[in-house]
Design brief:
The structure is a homotrimer. By secondary structure, chain A is an alpha+beta fold. Chain A has two domains: about 120 residues, Rieske Iron-sulfur Protein (3-layer Sandwich), CATH 2.102.10.10; about 220 residues, Naphthalene 1,2-dioxygenase Alpha Subunit, Chain A, domain 1 (Alpha-Beta Complex), CATH 3.90.380.10. Chain A contains six helices and 18 strands. In chain A, the strands form four sheets. In chain A, strands 12-18-17-16-15-14-13 form a seven-stranded antiparallel β-sheet. Chain A is globular, with a radius of gyration of 23 Å. The relative contact order of chain A is 0.15. Chains A and C meet through helix 2 and helix 5 of A and loops of C.
Chain lengths: ~350, ~350, ~350
């Protein structure tokens, strides 16, 4: 089951030049994204109303898409059938669904539900490849797993201490690090959760040694996880004592010594396959030569660790579907996020 | 659901030498074709009556087939069990089904239904590799799609103007060509449809320029599509004015300036896989050196275009099984053919 | 459906060094085998009680296994949860199932049912890679088939005369050899069948020509096939007349001139995939240089012949699930074994 009334990631705007189309499967539905000659991006049902051929195998003609099976042509902006070769005019039913589409920071988002409910306020506040404030790498990865298992993964970062020992180089000592040893603050939002975690008096990492006079720093990790699967995390470093000084609030008037920002979206393709898009990087001003490349390599390595773990988890779920989860203190984020999704889907069904 | 009482294509006679066997799956059933030493071709259930091993993994011994799992031997012509090693004689039930088999023009056909109803009149009037009148290329291709989608494809040739722009080199102008712009005459037959289409006053194609004095010609395409999936098409070129002179009838006393003939059969292997056999070529007298090779390359290129389109269509059908087709004027052939198949299958079920 | 109360093969003890783990799927269940630092071998449910991640992707820490998803740690011997990072102590339900495990002769066996019923008497009396009496090759092979078809294969060795003509080099004459022409003695056991077959006055095989004065020998093949899929076969050669002298009993006081011994276990992974482990070889005293290597090559060749036949048999079963087997005189072993399995599974269900 999927949430329909939501913005789903659908690739990178840069990858789709004028006259180009790309097929996506999103929450089980075939969707074609097309860039018209004037640069307009449209998203339509990738299923010709005539006999269900893929419009993405067709071609863009001005402001219309022609199915190259039997030549039916649709208005690219409205989905209305414009031409059936050999026929005076198309039947009224000859139309395909259009989806609201929005580009933010080079990310393409498609609204899969009722277009009347498409709300730009809900477009995830991601940062994209051309952001000036952040020097971001970007990429994507496909999982052979249901998206809920990936949501679970991202809503409980205690897994960092275990899954990513190698990629993040946390070492054995990390087990008792704050990620796993202490609970973050989890706040439930209308459409997600908010997670915050301070590590006070941590050692100074080499890459900011020059900025720090005392021998210790405070670290803050803060993220929103938004329905249906959007992860937006700031990792920040502050002078020692900042946490105490703000009473645990995220500082509003203190500049972090260092900050990076990750945007990630989890997009169900089918019930058992999911596409994952991400950007990640440090503030531009904190970025040194080679840093984005190293960050990208580390990110990909880390995501492969997640993918391996989660795909086997899926396989075990499938082999033993009667399983029961045993709770831990770290489940709160993942469980609350499941409840948020349940609430949203039930409301959507009821409407 | 499949039609059983029908002749299904099962490969090329030349490919099966004496002592050779080949396994086919036809309408979901395993079938072994075997060429006996005297040249007789037989078709049997490829499923040993003992424990369902493949007879096609066995060997031909004289007029019998021996299953090489436990050695049970069957009469290759009747399917009756002849020998069970170590047993005085086989039980009465030890027999496999035989299928009527017929070779026409080098095509092998197998009757998958009630043998008593196997009617040679129904063997498709294909032309084969050794035909003297036609210089034919031949080949085969497998689709990951249900056969009905391929029948649909072949019963509505308006797709030529779109799917095959590249392979047939029709160019953009072709969109308004007769294939897509005008409806052919479709006549419903007892076991199929008959489709005919004239294009009057067409430009003279280069390869017959020498035969044509005036600057224009009339083109005729005429084909039968017969249950369960047999396409037999003549494409002919006549002097300009022929269509008018015959009142649109296919000429009986005027030789075409040029003619080619395509025989194609669509053979369901399973519900989601289909094998496709074809021959195609011009009249031998119209054939110049290199022409069959070029025709074969073009044919294969065109069929790959169909395959790509139809396989994605199948995938979209599977993802969104609740789809509804919107009709066009060109659907008549495909729809009538679906009705013919429905009628035949219902009659078969009722009998 | 699978028998649970049984020892199932799970690889070779030598392949699992201290600190190593290996994942198996046995009768559909994920199982992790782990070798602790002190050499103890343990088998546990390969499914973390927390969120069903694979413990086999984790690591061994002393006498415990840590899931490397969120760090939950289990006692490797009892399955009891020992640690949940960040939590005072694990919940009572935080435990994974343990499976009794036993190593015999280098073979690992896991008891998949009620641990209280795990009976060492039922550990298959296999011979393993380091056996001194037998010079054994060993290996494994995966089948895309249900295990019952493999049990059937091994319970009716009349197939040797047909499936293995090439690998065993029996030649055409073998068809009327004892394997297929005569029935073995089949005795039903509590948990399997016992099969015995004499061939009297057979020609002397070259490799024991030096030991035999007369021109003929008696051959004995005797095997147990035990639930759920254990094949233990002795092939022995005796002086001519031995069978007559013992009244067909296996000699207790006559040394065979030659003997080899095969141990094989059939382990269902899923309903449609099965792992097969084997050792095979002659008595060490009968073994000449190069013999084990030749025997291994022949064994693998023969098992590939079985695999090809059985996998196609599975495919035919799946295509035509309504099939009915026609009996032969050689079915007794396979049928009795199916009945033994049915009886054992019904008793298990009833308990």
């Amino acid at each position: 089951m999927f949430l329909k009334n939501a913005w789903y990631g659908a690739g990178w705007s840069d990858d789709l030049g004028p006259g180009q189309m790309k097929q996506h499967f999103i929450i089980g539905q075939p969707v074609v994204l097309a860039r018209l000659a004037d640069g307009t991006l449209v998203a339509l049902e990738d299923r010709c109303a005539h006999r269900a051929a893929a419009l993405s195998y067709g071609q863009i003609e001005g402001d219309s898409l022609r199915c190259m099976y039997h030549g039916v042509r649709f208005d690219a902006r409205t989905g209305v059938g414009l031409e059936v070769p050999g026929q005076a005019r198309p039947s009224d039913g000859m139309r395909v669904r259009t989806y609201p589409v929005h580009v933010r920071q080079g990310w393409i988002f498609v609204w899969m539900g009722n277009p009347a409910k498409a709300d730009l306020v809900l477009v995830p506040p991601v940062a994209g490849p051309h952001n000036r404030e952040w020097a971001l790498c970007h990429g994507e990865m496909d999982y052979d797993a249901n998206y809920v298992l990936i949501n679970d993964n991202l809503c409980d970062l205690s897994h960092l201490s275990f899954v990513h020992v190698e990629s993040f180089g946390l070492g054995d000592a990390s087990r008792l690090s704050a990620w796993a040893a202490e609970r973050p603050d989890v706040t439930v939002l209308d459409r997600g959760i908010h997670v915050q975690r301070w590590v006070e008096g941590a050692p100074v990492p080499p890459f900011i040694a020059e900025k720090v006079s005392s021998g210790r720093i405070d670290r803050l990790a803060v993220y929103d996880y938004l329905a249906p699967g959007v992860f937006l995390m700031f990792a920040e470093i502050y002078p020692e004592g900042t946490c105490r000084a703000t009473g645990g609030q995220r500082p509003t008037d203190i500049e972090p010594l260092y900050a990076d920002f990750a945007s990630q979206t989890v997009v169900p393709m089918t019930d058992r396959s999911t596409r994952y898009y991400f950007t990640w990087g440090a503030r531009t001003r904190d970025t040194k030569p080679g840093m984005p490349e190293r960050m990208r390599a580390m990110t990909i390595a880390a995501f492969k660790e997640d993918k391996r773990m989660v795909e086997m988890q899926q396989r075990i779920h499938d082999a033993t579907p009667d399983l029961v989860f045993q709770p831990t203190v770290h489940d709160r984020g993942a469980n609350q996020m499941r409840l948020v999704m349940k609430r949203l889907m039930e409301a959507e069904q009821a409407a």
